[in-house]
Amino acid sequence: MSRAAVFYADGFEEVEALAPVDLLRRGGVDTVTVSIMGREVVHGSHGIDIKADTVIEGLDLDSFDMLVLPGGKLGHENLEKCRILMDKVKEFDKKGKYVAAICAAPTILGRLGILKGRDATCYGGMESALEGANKLTDPVVVSDHIITSRGMGTGIEFGLKLIEVLTDKNNADKIGSSVMVPGM
User: What φ, ψ does residue 130 adopt, rounded to 5°?
Assistant: First the structure.
């Protein structure tokens, strides 16, 4: 079974953090929510507190197949300050393991140099931080093992794409249909 770790930091965008987790779990992917704040309860950007499954300290991140970074202005800034996470994102990239980011979080990948020569997308108006990327406006972009998405409104499509790359398209389509995604 594939494993995904979704990282939460104070100021995260709630839909971008929860929709992929919900969909991944429905799709049979072992999905763990991970706080980088040194405590399990993390404060969302719109006043919704979420209790993560665990904290990053001491977690075996190598046991995961994918790292997922939600957006949110303060949320992505806090994620980027986490040395443990940033070191692991760079390591996953070097190993060709999946890294996914939505909304403002793809800008982290740009600043880390991970997007050079790759297609990528992010929240509108932040494209200049996608350093070295071929900047697209598609809702979800897969470029090698890097998956990026635009924002809250693309959260469902993003989550379904994560299921597709970790399992298969039929499973993603089945989950999309079961949650009543239009056109599925």
Answer: -85, 65
Q: Which of 3, 20, 33 is nearest to 140 (CA)?
A: 20
Give the start-to-end residue ranges of the domains of the chain.
Answer: 3-178
Q: Which residues are catalytic?
A: 103
Q: Give the H/E segment covering residue 88.
A: helix 83-95
Enclosing H/E stretch for 100: strand 98-102
Structure confidence by residue, pLDDT tens digits, 138-165: 999 999 999 999 999 999 999 999 999 9
Which residues, 6+ apart, have CB-to-CB distance to 58 below 8 Å? none
Q: What is the pTM of this model?
A: 0.98
Core vs surface per residue 4-16: b (16+ CB within 10 A) or e: bbbbbbbbbbbbb
Nearest to 20 by CA among 4, 1, 42: 4
What fold, for 3-178?
Rossmann fold (3.40.50)
